[in-house]
Design a protein that fits this description.
By secondary structure, the protein is mostly helical. Helix content is 65%, strand content 0%.
Length: 99
């Protein structure tokens, strides 16, 4: 169909922005708003490190040393509520990013 021409990164950034809009509007989904993580760059960094970790873990295994830098990074940059939500979404097959 038309409108599916977004590149992977644009699609993911659109996912992050939609996610942030949801938080800003105070919707109960996906998680409570957290002013420390309000910046789009911070959220994007968080989201991409989460993706990178899970992509790495999928290929090399969750304990692989190469993956640990991504794990540490998303734990530093992401509110745990976001991570929990994304973990749930991955389990349900509705996570917005491609892993």
């Amino acid at each position: 169909g038309s409108g599916m021409g977004l590149a992977g990164d644009e699609l993911e950034d659109a996912g992050v922005e939609a996610f942030l809009d949801m938080i800003k509007e105070g919707k109960p989904e996906p998680v409570p708003y957290d002013h420390r993580f309000a910046g789009l760059n911070q959220a994007r960094k968080c989201f991409h490190n989460y993706l990178d970790y899970h992509r790495c873990a999928k290929q090399k295994g969750e304990q692989a040393s190469e993956c640990m830098k991504f794990l540490r990074s998303f734990r530093d940059h992401c509110p745990m509520d976001w991570v929990k939500k994304w973990d749930e979404q991955r389990e349900e097959g509705v996570f917005p990013g491609r892993i």
